[in-house]
């Protein structure tokens, strides 16, 4: 079955609920809304995947309708300029012209409820707010304030530790059912998820060797050239472990490690993801099982980058890491003894986003072969999604001599932007890509002991030059 066919099968299985009539963005004047959410929405509308929703923005700024229209025009034009020549029949202009902005303090008792009372339901409420503000806003709401069928979209980070994630989950559970809560991991696009599952479960060649008998180790890497990019207020309070590993790489790991679900229905899929994460821990010898570092002065593509601790808004006393690595053990029959190394770093010389599956050597290599016998490696690249298989073959020239070749393929790409995929899931009532509540708590449970050991100074903070 092709990945495309899997995709269609998945959508056929979804419970859709009532169609969303209004998309309400809280934090409409913020960075996320302008730079990522609105462009994602524009692409979705252009592809005819947004139905006939009404867009409503709200924020604490006293913006005029003209300010809001200007923001829409800027964000929408940036997205549509790169989306090719789609005739959307005027859909995007309609979303723009019917959109309104409302000044609301979402933490003030009754203000958000009053705004909701005037909107056509069901409403998707996108909390593009600082996490503490989102939590307070939810606490002001009562179930009867929400039109039936409404959905809540929560940004990352979801809570600041296991306890706060549990608290936030219980606030949300009072308001809507779990499958109407979307905890966003915008790196986990639908095409990427299905690409991994299609590759793993539609090929007899892979599934029988996908275990500790044949696999030596798995590396999941998300290295980027981007530096702090003026986001110290958020990033210096988070760091690489919370920002990327806790919220995203553990999800990728679960997709690589999970057993085959019976169907691609969100419940089957998320049950299997949850089961992997429940079995996952980090060895308490944290000096061996974890690594942290931060960048110092350097150059990336000719641009000079200052020392992280000298960047505006950074407080060196927080000891925030810009590179984190943890080795996760999955305590189950399939994976006992196989290290899953998860690493993410900023300001590196090379962008590298991939999962590398390293196989064990063959039991016996016939005497007589020369050259380098390297392990077989399968690489699944993310954004763009690719597949590479590194294997040994003979030659060239000397047929006794082993040599390395790479077989490559490009996997299915999405026509939507990452936040378009997030909104597609929300508006079509498909929570498959959303992080389920129990899983969000488990991801904190896995990393919390590491964070405590780092705070206690058990693991030294290494340094690396930006661009290295
Ligand atoms: P910003 O600080 O840029 O924006 C926050 C928005 O919330 C502003 O519009 C602000 O309005 C509004 N706001 C704050 N308090 C209130 C209130 N009491 N009532 C109503 N509105 C309020 O943050 P970001 O856009 O960067 O981030 C938003 C969320 O998205 C965060 O959870 C973040 O972690 C997450 N995120 C952000 C990403 C990014 O690249 N920006 C990427 C991934 C996730 P005002 O300015 O008027 O106070």
Structure in words:
The two termini are 42 Å apart. The protein has two domains: 3-183, NAD(P)-binding Rossmann-like Domain (Rossmann fold, 3-Layer(aba) Sandwich); 190-415 and 435-465, 2-Layer Sandwich (Dihydrodipicolinate Reductase, domain 2), CATH 3.30.360. The chain has helices spanning 3-13, 31-46, 65-81, 91-97, 111-117, 131-140, 162-173, 190-201, 232-235, 240-257, 266-278, 286-289, 418-427, 437-455, and strands at residues 22-26, 54-59, 100-103, 123-127, 151-154, 181-183, 215-223, 280-282, 290-296, 298-300, 303-305, 323-330, 340-345, 352-359, 370-371, 377-381, 386-394, 401-410, 461-465. The strands form three sheets. Strands 7, 8, 9, 12, 13, 14, 15, 16, 17, 18 and 19 form an eleven-stranded mixed β-sheet that branches. It is α/β, with parallel strands linked by helices and 468 residues long. It is built from 14 helices and 19 strands. The radius of gyration is 23 Å and the shape is globular. Helix 2 crosses helix 13 (418-427) and helix 11 (266-278) packs parallel to helix 14. The site of NADPH dihydro-nicotinamide-adenine-dinucleotide phosphate has 20 residues, from helix 2 and helix 6. NADPH dihydro-nicotinamide-adenine-dinucleotide phosphate binds at residues 27, 29-32, 59-61, 104-107, 128-131, 133, 155-156, 234.
